[in-house]
Amino acid sequence: MDQEKEKSAGKLLEEQLTWKFPHIGKKAPKQTEEAAAFCEGYKEFLNQGKTERECVAKAVEMLEAAGYRPLSMTEKYRPGDKVYLVNRQKSILATTFGEEPLNKGVRINGAHIDSPRLDLKPYPLYEKSDIAYLKTHYYGGIRKYQWGTVPLALHGVVVKKDGEAVRICIGEQTGDPVFCVTDLLPHLAAKQNERKLAEGLKGEELNIVIGSLPFADEEVKEPVKLLALQILYDKYGMTEADFLRAEIELVPAQKAVDVGLDRSLVGAYGQDDRVCAYTALMAEIETKNPRYTTVTVLTDKEEIGSEGNTGMNSAYLRHYIEDLAELAGVRAREVLRNSLCLSSDVNAAYDPTFSDVFEANNASYINKGCVLTKYTGARGKSGANDASAETMAKVIAAMDNEGVYWQAGELGAVDQGGGGTIAKYVAQLDVDVVDLGVPILSMHAPFELASKLDVYNTYKAFMAFYKV
Ligand code: MN
Ligand code: MN
To answer: Which residues keep their CB under 5 angstroms from ion ligand 2?
Structure first.
């Protein structure tokens, strides 16, 4: 009290009228331990879910263990009941039924589980100068030069001629071989160094080394390719034609690790947006008796514009809500109109090394909590959802009431670039939406950084959201 009295009139007025987002490490240092404990599960999720299919499989496992059952159109659901629905193995919806009637709206939390990577082309295998390679077509916005000389693991599924689906995973178990894209040595890179950074490695140079020994038979024209095929056949029973019925992806083989002497950061591939997927899933599972019915969506294809029938630009979310409405005997459009949604996705954390692409007052910072983003888009908010003041107020109140550390942030300075999320596709359904997520350093790189305090507070924000 004595200290309060000593403050000058200007200092008091400053405290009353101005606002700055606090640093969690300074304001609530005790959260450091809780956040670190929470992120042990997060790192495990990242290691087990490096593709959208693997994330869905892991989510089903976690939901089933928590008492969720597949949605049934013949069941009568009561508040507190928990259900889920898988969409084509690549996206998933989970619900906890609320106390309020469904036509009062649902609380949607949508995150995406696809991440930038190298996809195999449909006819990928070839041999050149006694080396066997796989041809790739990159998926999502990658900086191609970052993907050379990085150990990569092969993940995916092959549907064989007889219909059997075989899961593929090489490069994750201890002792597994890994794969990679080669790059030039500096001694011979003078000409390549002249290229623009965007072309440091070109799309058709992202070729994956998968073998170098031949099948020992002088009669065989491409013996290195044949040996690679023989190994794949022995392991998975697949032939070259089976690549045409496959989805196989190269992702960084690196496991999620702590970064920094203080272990304050998680370093891993695919944190955009599995960081929001994991925190959303945990909040969904931990929510026991919500006021409004929850709809947690882990979606696919965000990185290529939410396209396809597993992306948010398809009708699958609307159909799910129509199913819930039918079960409750209410009109789906009334449910949608009264609903509130978090489009949960990462944002670009302010990077002091590249400060000129940010506007410091409106950037998000690591260790200041989850980022609330009113609008995304580029060139004058083009392509943005642009949440209303009313929607902002609801979400801010939910977080403040529960003591969540959050901050506001734009994706970069005006006209420096931009990006989109699933927000606008949910808004198309006549739902109030706003973006919220975790600030990330080196977003879309093979190794991204997130602060454990931010991850933890994002989970807390999602818990708070399901309480309003
Ligand atoms: Mn994202
Ligand atoms: Mn992204």
So the answer is: 272
